[in-house]
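Co-fold these.
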Amino acid sequence: MGLLGTESANSAPTVATITLSTTRSKLRRDIAAWTLVVVFLPVSFAAALPFFWMYLSSFKQASEIYSVTITWFPSKFYLGGYEYAIEHFQLVRAYSNSILVSAISVSASVMTSAMAGFLFAKKQFWGKNLLFVFVLSTLMVPFFAIFIPSFVVYAVFLNLKNTYFALILPNIFTAFGILITRQFLHSIPGEMIDSATVDGAGDWRVFWHIILPLSKSVLAAIAILQFLGAFNEFLWPLVMIDSRDLYTLPLALRKAFAAQGPDPSRLLAGAVLSLTPILIFFLIFQRHIVRGISLTGVKG
Amino acid sequence: MATVARAPRPRWRRPSSFVLVVALALLIYYMLFFTAPFIAALVIGFLNWDLLSTVVPVGFDNYVAMADDRTFKNALKVSAIFVGAYVPIALSAQLILGAILANMRTLPQKVYLTLFFLPVVTPWLIAVLMFGYLFNTQAGLPGMLNDIFSALGIDTSFVNPLGSKDTALLGIMGMTGWKFLGFGALIFLVGINEIPLTLYEAARIDGAGAVRQFRHITWPLIRPIMLALSITSFIGALQIFDPFFVMTRGGPGDATNVFSLYLYRQAFDQFRFGYASAMAMVMFLILLILSVSQLAIARTRWEY
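Predicted complex below.
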């Protein structure tokens, strides 16, 4: 049985026949699995095609990009696009703005997610279920439903137009993060918390010394997903920020597009410079994303 | 007088400062940034307001105006076509990809998943830039396809899909599908991986092939995920804004002037904040009805 691994762990009939047939079918399944991989190669290539094309074309001159005979690799390695993009697109500034806003938003929302998750998973208080349903219901409200009045509140009443604060404030609490953390902490036995409470630790200390370290992995997952979301946000910064010094990356890119010159390699170079750090960030942290999604309780 | 022993009732305990602070913060935050704006949107929908001059209450005029607004009705139609075609096709593709990935060994699964996830983390603006060139008739994919076919002796004339009223929406749909394929596939993959392997073992011993295994094991067990993803996809797809705003600007004509873009323009180009708010309420209602009806259908049809 050990030889067969878990594959036939639940089969009882004569060992010899089972062994033979399962090894054969295992081989067949191995072949099937690898055939799938090979057959699938062109499909995944198609998905990655725009990236290849963009990276390669950012080194091409305009005449080559628009030439009728299509070339993949640049015939001459042209760096003019990069020079122009670095000089004119203010990408460093935009990048710093984006990172600053996203980092503060994420730190805040991770902290509040942990606190609210602890509150809903382990604490009893009057009105708890009502509050939880209230928080959850915000997930069902489309952004556009509150878009106009939110703009009015931020721009007119709070006078927060052209401030970082306008971009951070909407992200301080996130229902999604609260939900995931609550789900995670729910599955954790309460003894650890109880014994700490008996020892005289208050909720704040329990939160700080037990809950926070305990939920590190969930919080990491939330942080990555939130970060990517905040970083790529477009519509809200679009209406909140006019001042070029405060442009986030998507706004700076849009500005560059709008002032589109004769040389497409400039834009492509700008896009490559903007995208590469995001992709590297994703490649480093992607396992957290996968875990984050498995934790979202996709069970429904 | 002897006291009558009462059953000890759980006494109301003073909540700790932690509970108090966090619960109150939550309540205040969501009241301030969700409930209040939502009620405000409802109210602004009954006003004529450009944020500068005085507010004029107009009753249901904004809602009545929608019925006569041909661009609005067109936007509703375009959005309905976009969402109605995109969501089922995209979900099917995502499910198929998730199922295929689930059947791969760990390493290729990881590699492919990473590849398909790249578009998900790419900002819309960069995706728009890439596709802007890829769709280019002369220098992009259409030209490439024409070259390939003419080499085979077939005369084709593929052109930029965004250039024509009939295909522009399709072009954006393709882009959107490309962008979110990996995300849905990952969710389905995680769901499929949670199905106990013994179920498939049993089916295999009973002689069920891959297709029947999918139909009788994977599909029924994946349906709750399908439901959740379908509801969030409808909510998400109706609100897609960036590619329409940056790439087609609603054109050619009004062929891609979707609900979200028209709403934005009414507010921020025409300064008709009341009208835009009324439109937002209509959008909310549509999504609410869609979500509730999907849940209702799921409950009657799927619960055993």
